[in-house]
Amino acid sequence: MDLRIGHGFDSHAFKPGVPLIIGGLAIEHPEGLAGHSDGDVLLHAITDALLGAVAAGDIGTFFPPSDARWKDAESSIFLNLALEEIHHAGYRIMNVDATLILAAPKISPIAGEMRERLAILLDILPNVVSIKAKTPEGMSMDHVAQAHAVVLLQRIEDPAELMSMTAVVESQRQLEDVVKDLISEVHKGPGTRTVVPVFDTDDIT
Ligand code: MG
User: Fold this and answer.
1) 3-185 adopts what CATH topology?
2) Which of 1, 5, 13, 38 is the least crowded, having the fewest Cβ atoms under 10 Å away?
3) Which of 159, 148, 155, 33 is nearest to 99 (CA)?
4) pTM
């Protein structure tokens, strides 16, 4: 069985007056996460884990914080690009395991809803999405949210399945245009899909 594993990490500081969005879920809270995009620390970690699993760089490779197009962008855009990258490499997600580290709000009451939301975004079943949460005991990081994510991928053996998975992404016309533009930038031309060994660790902060 051809398997790949990927790990992702991200952190964002809390900031008053902005919406809190974690795992694609809008959460009632006095503060949100500061970021060039919507600051979704969990989606950023999962995006990096997916890209890492197929050695396709990281979130900063495709979405540099210097690019004004990603100001206040929904992080599902980043996630969709990573999904397209793993499908192009010929893999599907087997499971995702994530850990959030933050003092507040409590995640356990909404973890189920967050798993459901992530399952929709990742086009997988909720029973292969795990979200755990810890408080940052002894770390003096009560105003920071951190996320770790691990993904396991399995090679897709059936070409028909691969085509149908690619079609899901390609049916999103607006996203397709954006993704093609980004891929051509990163891969130096739409015809060449060789992954370049670029690991720009800049992140959207
Ligand atoms: Mg980030």
Assistant:
1) 60s Ribosomal Protein L30; Chain: A; (3.30.1330)
2) 1
3) 148
4) 0.82
Band of the pLDDT at 4, cuts 50, 70, 90? very high
CA atoms of 104 and 93, how far apart (whole Å): 30
Q: What is the pLDDT averaged over residues 59-81?
A: 89
**pLDDT score recorded for residue 192:** 44
Span from the CA of 20 to the centroid of ligand 1 (angstroms): 13
Q: Find how far residue 153's CA is from the centre of its chain.
A: 15
The CA 35 to ligand 1 mean position distance, Å, reads: 7
**Domain range list for the chain:** 3-185
Distance 203 CA to ligand 1 centre (A): 6
Question: How far away, in angstroms, is 102 Cα from ligand 1 center?
Answer: 15
With 80 as the cut, is the pLDDT of residue 173 above it?
A: no
